[in-house]
From TrEMBL:
Pfam families: ROK. This is ROK family protein. Gene3D superfamilies: 3.30.420.40, Winged helix-like DNA-binding domain superfamily/Winged helix DNA-binding domain. Belongs to the ROK (NagC/XylR) family. Coiled coil: none annotated. CDD domains: ASKHA_ATPase_ROK_BsXylR-like. InterPro entries: ATPase_NBD, ROK, WH-like_DNA-bd_sf, WH_DNA-bd_sf.
């Protein structure tokens, strides 16, 4: 969906505030599309050509955008409109995905390109301090070869648990055994407050990424399921993320779908994630290993699913059916381990969805695999980290001067 221009209003809305807002909106269009004409910006932002030219010139002086003639053959008469693209100066964020078994990091540039990756193991029972140390250590390695004039403008973290929308604290992450953790504060302390750190639930970031850059681009109503050991849901309704009052919306993994099912880590029985998560899949495949990569490999080899695996597929279909009947989305996107499980049990899932949903025959909700594959959450963490830059490029760019060197040199306890 196109970004909408909204001018500040009220007593605090002065000319400088409007200018900064417009700079952020314009940069947001460049970040979203990667290449956009000045003519298109004029139409989208409802501003005249001279104002757009002045805004582009200001961002160009910062080095964050560049102008060029359009690629390909020129169409129509007259001089073609210049196009605006990310500039030669690298503007980037560090995106982090905390998984049960690993910590994944990516350096993501303006325009959404993944510029580098690193991975570190997440040892069983890792506490938040250990994880924060590993993130900073791995981030410094990831940034080692970046040009010294690059602008590092934020760190975004996605994690499997309930994250407060009010203060960014991790209220509860049962599969990490964490509760009431200010993880963003731990990271900011280690990097000396050089840049802002923002944190979000993995499924909420997955749907953010798929809506902005993946298979759900252009849709207005989407459910994204992040499923490995646990299962979480990210929701887009009428083009906006649905987070709930304090961030609990989308905890669909603890939707009970049977009264006498498996014991869940939350203490209840029959939670959806207990019936379709990694432990249930491993049991159905007859393997003692719960490692996600191993389970994905085994699922890829499934030709005809066994009865236990078909039962897991049935439970997947029951939960999807409930979500379709509650939210009426255009698509349900299956991320994480679920993206490998679904192809193996597609017939059972689809049959249950057809049988149980209230969709009309001429408008079925689609069950889709993520367009970004296993990168949905980490790309979403990057989008979250870019948020401040899209609000006020001047302030964030100024604050980010020197941040790269500070993160590279962040001291860690021995």
């Amino acid at each position: 969906m196109p970004l909408q221009q909204q001018r500040p209003t009220g007593k605090g809305a002065n000319q400088e505030a409007v200018r900064r807002h417009n700079l952020g909106t314009l940069l947001g269009h460049v970040h979203r599309d990667g290449d956009v004409s000045r003519a298109a910006l004029t139409t989208r932002m409802d501003l005249n050509r001279s104002t757009i030219a002045a805004l582009v010139a200001e961002l160009e002086r910062l080095g964050v955008v560049a102008q060029a003639t359009p690629r390909g053959d020129r169409q129509g008469a007259g001089r073609p409109s210049l196009h605006v693209r990310p500039g030669e100066r690298e503007v980037c964020v560090i995106a982090v995905e905390l998984r049960v078994e690993s910590i994944e990091l990516a350096r993501i540039g303006l325009g959404g390109a993944v510029l580098g990756r690193r991975s570190a193991p997440m040892a069983p029972g890792s506490n938040p301090d250990d994880a924060a140390d590993e993130v900073v250590r791995t981030a410094a390695d990831l940034l080692a070869d970046v040009a010294d004039d690059a602008l590092l403008v934020g760190i975004g973290v996605g994690m499997p648990g309930i994250v407060s929308t009010e203060d960014g604290r991790i209220h509860y992450a049962p599969n990490l055994s964490w509760s009431d953790v200010a993880f963003s504060d731990l990271l900011e302390q280690r990097i000396g407050g050089a840049i802002p750190v923002v944190i979000g639930n993995d499924a909420n970031l997955g749907v953010l990424a798929e809506h902005a850059r993946g298979v759900a681009r252009g849709m207005t109503d989407v459910v994204y399921l992040s499923g490995d050991v646990g299962v979480g849901g990210g929701l887009i309704t009428r083009g906006r993320r649905l987070l709930g009052t304090v961030g609990y919306a989308g905890e669909v993994g603890h939707m009970r779908i049977t009264v006498d099912g498996r014991r869940c880590r939350c203490g209840n029985r029959g939670c959806w994630e207990a019936e379709i998560g990694a432990l249930a899949v491993a049991d159905a495949l007859g393997t003692p290993s719960h490692e996600i990569a191993h389970l994905v490999d085994l699922l890829d080899e499934v030709d005809t699913p066994s009865p236990p695996l078909r039962e897991v597929g049935l439970m997947l279909g029951v939960g999807i059916t409930n979500l379709i009947n509650i939210f009426d989305p255009q698509a349900v996107i299956l991320g994480g381990l679920l993206s490998a499980l679904y192809p193996a049990v597609r017939d059972d899932v689809d049959a249950e969805v057809r049988r149980g949903t209230l969709d009309s025959e001429d408008r079925r909700t689609e069950v889709l695999l993520p367009g970004l594959g296993r990168d949905s959450v980490i790309v979403g963490a990057g989008e979250l980290a870019f948020g401040a830059m899209m609000s006020d490029p001047l302030a964030v760019s100024s604050a980010a001067e020197g941040a790269l060197a500070q993160v590279r040199a962040a001291p860690l306890p021995r």
